[in-house]
Amino acid sequence: MADTIVEQRNVSLPALDGRLDQQLNTPPKSKLPAVASDISPAWLTSVLGVKVRSVKRTNEVPGTATKLYVTAKNENGERRLCVKGGFNPAFIEQMPWIVMIYQREVEFFNRIAPTLKGMDLPKAWWADYNQSQGIVVMEDLAARGCTFGNPVETWPVYRVRQGVEQLAALHAKTWGVQPADYPWLTSDYDQAILTLMQTYGAVTNGPDRPYVHEYLRDQDRVTAVLKKHYRSRNPKFQCLLHGDAHLGNTYLDRGAPRFLDWQMIHIGSAFHDVAYYIAGALTVENRRMYEWRLLDHYLSILAKFGVRENLKTSDEDLRIEYRKAFLAGVGWLMCPYQMQPRECVHAMAGRYAAALDDHKVLELVESLLSLRLLRKGFHSTLYLAGWVRRSGA
Q1: Which of 171, 391, 158 is nearest to 274 (CA)?
Q2: Torsions phi, psi of 111, nearest 5?
Q3: pLDDT tens for residues 75-108?
């Protein structure tokens, strides 16, 4: 169980200033709100550490997690907040595993976020979970003028460049991390994607789907490639990942890109985040023209934040790992319209399909040598194409 984070406990929230009426305590974990109507003045008082007289719910945004936007008031002022959690009991009953995702974001804000330098994050006032819920009370970003990314749109190159700097800050801080370092962080990403792949062919070959190359709609082939990709990640580039770094999980703070929605964090190859972000954020033409320069910049920021390996885009093992990582976009190729709007799926699937085809990713992964060598410590040039060139075979 995570320790709760109450950054402003026993002091005042901005615009809710004044002395506390009494010593306040965190509510029992068993009593976390389960529905929107449970977000009461008494509950907010207990978690924020200041007396809240009234709560007005101003908006509700459904999704994997529900975002409840509220205005909390007392005699000294008001504060607009976002309360994020699992407030749809019927949805949770249908998919009880979804609670794990809520809990994971709580853990991120409690354990990881306070340690990050150079990465700007939404202010979280409090976060905790129990067996059936996970809640983060954070700032309402729109209240201070932030705007949110839209997967239908693309970003200019300079903004994508700023975004890779944010990812580099996260990756550098956790570079070389091992599962034992985060025993609370379960490894579920690979299996979740492979489970979704069971309906891949039916979805990608269904009516009104975005254009995807015919060979990329082959369920058996893509599934086999994903399995081999997951087995062959190069541990040289291992770190903590955002896990879902697309434009729908971003916001702009005075024009600067920032990441939110930390429900999919996991340990993996850094290039999962980088390739996924670059391919999803740029037009296909700009990605083809600028991706290697953006990758150069990302590597320079890693070095700035303390990663000591002399990583270069000319390194063959790095280039291979980057190209493989476009497989992170397969989720958009098979994304049903019940999960993401049609216009978002069409826009994103087109960008990722183009990247997978440009980089010949399926052929690349199919050419990999056995990972048994990699597990013995041979971390470089263990790919068939590279071995052939080096050996003269």
Answers
A1: 171
A2: -105, -35
A3: 889 999 999 999 999 988 888 888 999 999 999 9
Residue closest to 242 by CA, chosen among 222, 256, 263, 216:
263
Q: Which residue has the tokens 């996991």?
A: 266
Runs of H (alpha helix) within 174-199:
189-196
In sequence order, the β-bridge partners of residue 368 are 383
Cα distance from N-terminal residue to C-terminal residue, the chain:
54
What span, in angstroms and rounded, lies between the C-alpha atoms of 38 and 45? 13
Residue 167, burial from CB neighbour count under 10 angstroms (0-12, 13-18, 19+): buried
Exposed, middle or buried by CB within 10 Å (0-12, 13-18, 19+), for 152?
Answer: middle
Residue 51's contacts (CB-CB under 8 Å, 6 or more residues apart) are 18, 20, 21, 22, 45, 74
Which amino acid would we find at residue 215? Y
The amino acid at residue 125 is: W
Domains, the chain, in order of start with CATH, read 5-139 (3.30.200), 147-391 (3.90.1200.10)
Looking at the DSSP assignment, which residues form a beta bridge with residue 134? 129
Q: Collapsing DSSP states into helix, strand and coil, what is residue 265?
A: coil
Residues 6+ apart with CB under 8 A from 89: 34, 35
Predicted confidence (pLDDT) per residue in 290-317, tens digit? 999 999 999 999 999 999 999 999 999 9
Tokens of 113: 């976020």
CA distance linking residue 73 with residue 158, whole number of Å: 40
Residue type, 254: R
Helix-helix angle 284-304:270-281, to 10 degrees: 140
Helix ranges (DSSP H) in 134-269: 157-173, 189-196, 200-204, 219-231
Token representation of residue 258:
């920032």
- Nearest Cα neighbor of 317 from 366, 220, 252, 382 is 382
Q: For the chain, what is the mean pLDDT?
A: 88
Cβ atoms 352, 289 nearer than 8 A: no
Calpha distance 274→319 (Å, rounded) = 12
Strands 77-85 and 133-139: antiparallel
- Backbone phi and psi for residue 264, each to the nearest 5 degrees, phi listed first: -110, 20
Strand order in the sheet with 250-253: 147-148, 250-253, 256-259
Rounded Cα distance between 168 and 297, Å, is 10
